[in-house]
Write a structure and sequence with these properties.
This protein is mostly helical and 206 residues long. It has 4 helices and 3 strands, in the order αααββαβ. Helices cover 78% and strands 5% of the residues. It binds zinc ion.
Length: 206
């Protein structure tokens, strides 16, 4: 799994989490506003109750009428508040649905990222142990090689990446130069280590 792919998923996850936070914040704001309206409506209801009591205590017709007007006005206010509360409750429902969907998506992306990261970790570990095996094998093989030749090999390998190259159609596959007949004969004889006259790489017949 390419790390780039994981990066994309991690970005997708971060975006989903950010969206989720934004929707949750919005839902919280709706709830605060709704509670505020609830308190407001209750205050109006308390006032109406107070006016009702005053209405039966007064003997003045004018005052009675004024209290009635106030009650009617407050009742209208309460209806207005209740309409706003209803609208907020609908918004809260919508927000709740968005939160549920986003939450689900976020969880799915999260487990996808986790699976990919675990996959990468497993592959890295496999490569590390493979490398360790190859290093051990190289050390074991190097033990069987003469010290001088090993030094030559290491020097060539470090300088030219390829220390041992094929000889094809009298040409060195390392530097692509044509070799002398004498060199070609020596390589074909396979009795000694022969180097390319041009680049110095060790030659062999494939
Ligand atoms: Zn060469």
């Amino acid at each position: 799994m390419a790390p780039l792919e994981t990066k994309d998923l991690e970005e997708k996850l971060a975006a989903a989490l950010k969206q989720l936070e934004a929707v949750k914040l919005k839902a919280k704001e709706i709830e605060v506003e709704r509670k505020k309206l609830e308190v407001e409506a209750q205050a109006k209801r308390d006032s109406i109750n107070k006016f009702q009591t005053q209405k039966f205590q007064t003997r003045k017709n004018e005052e009675f009428q004024a209290l009635n007007n106030e009650i009617t006005r407050y009742e209208g206010d309460i209806r207005g508040i209740e309409d706003r509360e209803l609208a907020l409750m609908e918004s809260a429902e919508t927000a709740k649905a968005i939160i549920a969907t986003t939450d689900k998506e976020t969880q799915a992306t999260k487990s996808q990222v986790e699976r990919q990261l675990a996959d990468i970790a497993a592959k890295t570990q496999a490569l590390a142990s493979q490398l360790k095996e190859l290093e051990a094998e190289r050390a074991r093989l190097a033990e069987a090689v003469e010290e001088d030749l090993l030094d030559t090999f290491n020097r060539l390998f470090n300088n030219k990446t390829e220390a041992v190259v094929a000889l094809e159609h009298d040409v060195c596959m390392g530097c692509h130069m044509k070799l002398t007949t004498q060199t070609v004969v020596r390589v074909k004889g396979a009795r000694e280590i022969v180097h390319c006259e041009q680049c110095g790489r060790i030659l062999y017949i494939p």
